[in-house]
Amino acid sequence: MNRPLQQRARDAGIEVSWTDAQGQPRELSPETIDALLQVLESHAPSAQPGLRVATAGAALPPACSAREAYCLDTRRHVPLARDAQGRVRAPGQPGHYQLGGLPGDGMLAVAPPRCFTAADLPGPADRAWGVTAQVYGLRRPGDGGLGDSQAVAALGRHIAAAGGDAVGLSPLHAMSPPTADFSPYAPSHRAWLDTLQIAPAQVLGTEALHEALEHGGQTPAWARAERRPLIDWPAQDAMRQQAWDHLVQRYAGQGALQRALADFIADGGDSLRLHAIFAAHQRLARTRGESPDWRHWGHAWRDGRHAEMAAFAGRHATAVERELFLQWLAARCWDDTQAQLRAAGQRIGLVWDLAAGFEPGGSEAWRYRELVVEGAHIGAPPDAFNPDGQDWGLAAYSPAALRRSGYAPVREWLGRMMPRGGGLRIDHILGWSRLWLIPGGMSPREGGYVRYPQHDLLGLLALASWRHRCLVIGEDLGTVPADLRQVLAGHGVYGMDVLPFTRDAQGGFVPPAQWRRHAVAMSSTHDLPPLAGWRAGTDLDALARVHGWNGGTLADARKQRQHDMAKLDRLLQSFPARSPRQAALRAVAESASALALFPLEDVLAERLQPNLPGTVPSQYPNWRRRLSWRLPRLDATLRWIARHRRTHADA
What we know:
- This protein is of the alpha/beta class and 651 residues long.
- The protein is 40% helix and 14% strand.
- The protein has 22 helices and 21 strands.
- The strands form 5 sheets. It has an 8-stranded parallel β-sheet with strand order 18-15-12-9-8-21-20-19. It has a 5-stranded mixed β-sheet with strand order 3-7-6-4-5, with helices on one face. A 4-stranded antiparallel β-sheet has the order 14-13-16-17.
- The longest helix is centred in the middle third of the chain and has 33 residues, at 255-287.
- The model has no long low-confidence stretch (mean pLDDT 93).
């Protein structure tokens, strides 16, 4: 490879050399480098960032000569100190500042050294626990076939009664009108909310929903959908949109609600209004049988001419106002749910899930189109679980453009998501250090790593975390850079120690007492079979069907699983219980981790996983499965978990 090409790659943040999941050194091909350069160099780096990020009290760039800073949060002038070398130091109080003597516009975000953590919660600092749930899969009487905010509140009260602190959620970002291949990890806009998985009765009352269903003649269909084991996302969307239409018409103009709605719209500003315009156009396009992807809407939408936006909003004012009302309604539903969990005694409450990327044809990509990398998708390199790598089909931001914008999208989703609960899980936080980008027309194997401004991003995360007293979990699974876990821990970001992955160099299971204290202990995840399914090999059976394994391949996989089960059982001998599943739950409960989260599938002894990576709807019902349970069994398992979580604390 020629040196000029290598240098251009490094200047663009491309990792020419990297180490794979097996510890083997790899080098990008000239073809991959050239393709990545083509998509990255269209976003020329700016000499001046839109926002500088510094840790409280740290030295600022030598060019800074300011004597004081103006705090935008407190609206006060703050004198600035200098260090022994004469360099100006950042203010000691975290916040947002304006100061002279810095190149550019002088905007400075001052971050605390770390995020808010469980140690900062009231009560026992290191024994917090909770349950994670796929929201759509929850059940309650009268839910119409889709889990919602009211079902989360009911589940959360049972968790709180057992002494639990949190309910982890599947992503609930604003979505495009769903198709059969719906995925909560492919959102339209991460700052705004999904409007399907809500229970309007929490805000408007039960009679309001019953009236809406009866008005549209939907009551029988609502009841039938409730009995189905799998979710039909397009049908749910059609049914709920009709009911929601009646609620909007009936309540959006009411006096007290209208004032609350006006305040919400004012707080949402341009971002909310633009999203509402986009969502209204997207739904209209779907109704007309047109593409919901804004890239097919013509030049006016691509270049964002304000005249065209205003004209559309004027012609379709009712549709835009409908989207604004539904966003307000969704926010109110989840605010009510969080309030119920905290009132029931949970110290954390809702833990929201931030998707790693976003839909290229969705609202966020349109809103920040000048920052998006065109012609490449996010994915993952080959590893033991996906030997061909993965192309997630999601959009990403250009590192240079993100920096130039002052990290506007990041600050927006953090500022919107964190106030809604007590925790935030960041999917694939590895992408805050580097992302595997796959140029268009290439396979996932032909992608490459591109570096992102990790220091600035983690500083903004810590600042938002303390502002909203929201702890942060980073999914640090996969091909992890050598020092990333230490960096994340130093910034107060919890990693994830998942039972099937907590292995030593010889493949044996690490005793839970040796798990990381600054990580979340988990028995499984949504991409893995639950504990009972792992033992039964349900994932292997599904993979064999999907990929057409022959008998020998399946037999080899089962043999390896039996070998792994024997290793796990040796570990679980130290955790006596009535069943291997309970022993595994006990092991996770008694781990050294400051926070433990148990997937509801494991609590209920389910066998089938919510998502089988690498499959399509015709192969596996990803993100569609609904759960059933009996409350006595649920409560008994939650008390079992709580007892062993406390036992370890008292030991």
